[in-house]
Amino acid sequence: MQILPLWINGQRTSSVSSRSGEVTNPATGAVIRRVPLANAEDVNRAVAAAETAFPNWRDTPPLRRSRILNKFRELLETHKAELAKLASEEHGKTLEDAAGSVQRGIEVVEFAVGAPHLLKGEHAENVGRGVDCHSLLQPVGVCAGITPFNFPAMVPMWMFPIAIACGNTFILKPSEKVPSCSLRMAELFKEAGLPDGVFNVVPGDKEAVDALLSHPDVRAVSFVGSTPIAKYIYETAAHHGKRVQALGGAKNHAVVLPDADMDFTADAIMGAAYGSAGERCMAISVVVAVGDSADTIVAKLKSRAEKLVVGAGNQTGVDMGPVISAQHRDKIVGYINSGVTQGATLVTDGRGINVAGHEGGYFVGATLFDHVSTAMTIYQEEIFGPVLCVLRAATLSEAITLINANQYANGTAIFTSSGGAARRFQNEIEVGMVGINVPIPVPMAFFSFGGWKASLFGDLHMHGMEGIYFYTRTKAITTRWPAVSDKKVSSLVMPTLG
Ligand code: NAD
After folding, report:
1. pLDDT value, residue 489
2. I need a surface site. Which of 49, 165, 244, 444 has the fewest CB within 10 A?
3. What is the pLDDT of residue 278?
4. Is the CB of 281 under 6 A from ligand 1?
5. Is residue 309 part of a domain?
6. What percent of the chain has pLDDT over 90?
7. Helix pair angle (262-274, 293-307), 10° resolution
8. Ligand 1 centroid, distance to 228 Cα (angstroms)
């Protein structure tokens, strides 16, 4: 069985760890390759390579760095289908869906190519008499990224292209369940001309993560994953004096007002709830049906959910692939059982689904619950599977209060034909990303991605200008060139410059 390498200092290298894990094809249950679970010594090698490469990369003019990124972008375009195939094979999502997510990652590289413009500081003349001030955005050094299983190419690309465009060097610790896209992207980046050591990939689990979090030469940590681990990463990295952004889990609500176009809304919610088998941090997992919209929207969702085709992600005509593992499938089924026990109405039941020829796969069919209450476990916890819960609210005010009381605040959407209702919603809702008649409002690369509350620990979101700020340190320089005739400046009084 093939065991994957690490990627350190521009080449494949074997892990010195004695531990390895299995990479499974979730559509068949077959182990397709093994992944090394890097240890502290592996991490030390990667950090040493990144630290050595840093001074030269920092001093490489941003425009030259950008040209390499642009070449990388071209190679990603050429290899898009190959990356999508790897993502689909290891994650389970359909090839078309995987290609879409690779495309969204490429768009971050496209944004990062513009870094020379974005890295310009500010300049002000005469902040005091004869005194000027300017600021620099300088790279922070060795950065680390730790990523989840559900977007094998896109989420890593939220991080490393921007960090590297800003002049940093980077160590990526991808999810051990889906390591192959990251390793392939490292090869493509080298082919694009990236100097050795600037980008390193260290597959592993908690052991590798802990080594990165405590390593004194790692200056910044970006994380995307579940909320308990995000909180742990945030606290541990901060304890070790690093800057950190840690994106966590989600429970995303879509509010449906009675004046919405119900067919348009049902189609939009279907894609958002069941695409990628619900394993998206921006998946809609809750519908809040306001007033008399409830019966209509539930009926339309039911008829659509019953028609969804479940199968292997590489088969044509399939809408929804498997979930990531047998353990995760069983957890989702456990949630569905609890919904039934706690009194929700099971409208469409995805349990016990059989996919002919893929009996070993981890499939759960589209599941729809109506009459869910906020006290139920299926509402309170992130299920991360193809389970959609409908709650009913009398008014928009009630819907907003309900959403704002939830611990998660990643994304939300409202479906309405009322500009006034939409405006009120965007103003009052306490959630990081909001869609108005847009079910999955993932911001484009030139805006920033991030939630609020338990969906993000840290101050800055990913990509967009917040990404540039996260991966740079601001330095302000105040300058005076005194002429002989200038009066004496020495004084013990707080300088006011003017
Ligand atoms: P996870 O938290 O289990 O793992 C994420 C990363 O952390 C992986 O690289 C994993 O190896 C590592 N890790 C796991 N346990 C660890 C531990 N105890 N100590 C240190 N590191 C550890 O998440 P997952 O199951 O891979 O991904 C699904 C989760 O990610 C969901 O909760 C989903 O909502 C979330 N997610 C959030 C966003 C977002 O933008 N907010 C995007 C994608 C996924």
Report:
1. 61
2. 444
3. 98
4. yes
5. yes
6. 96
7. 50
8. 9
Query: Does residue 178 have its Cβ closer than 6 Å to ligand 1?
Result: no
Q: Is the CB of 250 under 6 A from ligand 1?
A: yes
pLDDT at 362 (0 to 100): 98
CB of 145 sitting under 6 A from ligand 1: no
The residue with tokens 């920033």 is 448
Specify whether 281 is catalytic. yes
Please name which of 43, 10, 249, 6 lies closest in space to residue 144, comparing C-alpha atoms. 43
Q: Which of 385, 405, 436 is the last residue of a domain?
A: 436
> Is 201's C-beta closer than 6 angstroms to any atom of ligand 1?
no
Average pLDDT of the chain, as a whole number: 97
Evaluate whether residue 487 is within a structural domain.
Answer: no
Provide the domain count of the chain: 2
- The answer to whether position 442 is within a domain reads no
For atom 23 of ligand 1, the residue with the nearest CA is: 225
Beta strand 30-36 with 20-25 is: antiparallel
**Assigned domain for 204 exists:** yes
Please state the atom number of ligand 1 nearest to the C-alpha of residue 149: 26
Query: 175 CA to middle of ligand 1, Å?
Result: 8
Question: For the chain, which ranges sit under pLDDT 50?
Answer: none
